[in-house]
Write a structure and sequence with these properties.
- By secondary structure, the protein is α/β, with parallel strands linked by helices.
- It has a domain at 39-161 and 215-247 and 275-350: 3-Layer(aba) Sandwich (Rossmann fold).
- It is 36% helix and 22% strand.
- The protein has 13 helices and 16 strands.
- It has helices spanning 3-17, 22-31, 37-40, 53-56, 58-74, 92-100, 107-110, 120-129, 217-233, 279-288, 299-305, 308-317, 321-335, and strands spanning 20-21, 81-86, 111-116, 136-138, 149-154, 163-167, 172-179, 185-189, 212-215, 235-244, 254-257, 260-262, 272-274, 277-278, 292-298, 344-350.
- Strands 2, 3, 4, 5, 10, 14, 15 and 16 form an 8-stranded mixed sheet that branches.
Length: 364
Amino acid sequence: MNPAGLTARLARHIHAHGPMTIAAFMAMALHDPKAGYYARRQPLGASGDFVTAPEISQIFGELIGLWCADLWQHMGSPDPVIVAELGPGRGVLIADFLRAVSGIAGFRPAMRLYLVEASPMLRAEQQRRLDGAGAVWLDDVAGLPDGPLLLVANEFLDALPIRQLVRGPAHWAERLVGVDADGRLCFAKGPESPMLSVLVPADRRDVVPDTVFEMCPAAAALAAGVAERLREQGGAALFVDYGYTGATGKSTLAAIGRHRAAGILDAPGTADLSAHVDFTALAAAARGGGATVYGPVPQGDFLKALGADLRLQILLRHAAPDQRAALETGLRRLIDPAEMGTLFQVLAIASPGIPAPAGFADGV
């Protein structure tokens, strides 16, 4: 099915059932098995639509690997230990991770590696890159086996479907996706309802009209579920994503194609859709699940605390002259506040009793 076919199918659904939530639209646009973005496109890299931190610098995946190995030792070096990545992209992060931890006595043999990936195209790329690594692929985090867990999710939460509420003159209303008089997809506004205020945190309800509140039920459910598991079976999870704490009051939903901004509703299935992560809500859900929460802290501060600058110097000593600039530029892009250093945040959740993980001072 081509993108126009998905647009027509969405329009027919709306005509038959009424405007749909943004969450339902995102789910179809990204994951429709025939025409969804992740079903038919290779999104990453220069020839794709965007790049992520592991693609920018090998130091990112290496340091996350060492972060997990350090935590494993603080956990008492359990054998086996489940190591899982959610949304592994092209497999670059976990490849760098595995290389970095190869010298940590006992860790690699104890690892049982699981990759949670819904995209058939990305899964095929991961399987090529990680051939021989002993990885097991899953469709959903619910398939992870029992046992102590170390989980990594880099730029995974931002692609989960969100809902948007808009403050009206009297109450909140939900922003929906409808069809205009010309048959094109458009944003629409549902009826105002006092019941919708229940979905908005108390400290965010008394705001001016047109203020937007975004929520991601899937992210909250994931954080709560992982937290409950960690509380019962031990371990930690690391979430890295672009996002915010507190409230933005505006829409962060965006589309990107070929490394440029695209129209959110223009051609569903041809562009990536994402929204900034509400780390305040994520942390609250994790605490509700019984885990200890660390952060969020800016990505730049986190990587520097783990020794990113020292690792760069080691790599530069062995790099060819034409590699040095790329190494320096890559790390600078990850840690510079003007680039990804503060936009991206890092949050960890851990089972109670584990010492504060590297890169975090205290649980908050």
